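note to self — DONT lose this again. spent like an hour looking for the file last time. sequence + predicted structure for the chain T wanted, 208 res
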Amino acid sequence: MPDFYFENKYDCEVAGIDEAGRGPWAGPVVAGAVVIKNRCLCDELLNGLDDSKKLSAAKREKLYLKLFEEQAAGNLQIGIGEASVQEIDELNILQATFLAMRRAVEKLPVCPSAALIDGNRTPPAFPCACQTVIKGDSLSLSISAASIVAKVYRDRLMRELGERYPGYGFEKNAGYGTAAHIEGLKKQGVTPEHRRSYKPIKEFMKQK
């Protein structure tokens, strides 16, 4: 379970940062940034936070709402940043992810002095000092909170895209290359929300 081990290495406010949506064929990439004030969490979050991929959708939604309740109570700060499909295609997914992370930090009320970032790549030109943490969403409570914020926020966006572009299963597959998604591409073609720089979409467009 995640804890405050990495946060406690700093004597300042630290943001945990994680992203959602690097692998899908459609939709934006989203980053979350969470600052837990005074390294203090309510029991529901302290005992419930974990890598968002290990949690059920219902559990993630419950924790997401609780995180925003705690933000309203002044106990933590949340920032969410996105990079669009167009930016993914122009910059590549890694650079677009870094852009979303920078935007997430910029959405925080105060720029933190340091950030713990899930993974092993440090974003360039970041607004504060960075430390990468491999599997950070399973190790750091701040990164775990950020992973849930990013995942739930993006899943909600993809449900909206599923209503706008029915037939691809975005509301269920979040833009990943499932059988329903492939069938939608075969029947209806590529939407403006598809990542044209991704090989499967490139191949599909060649076939068409």
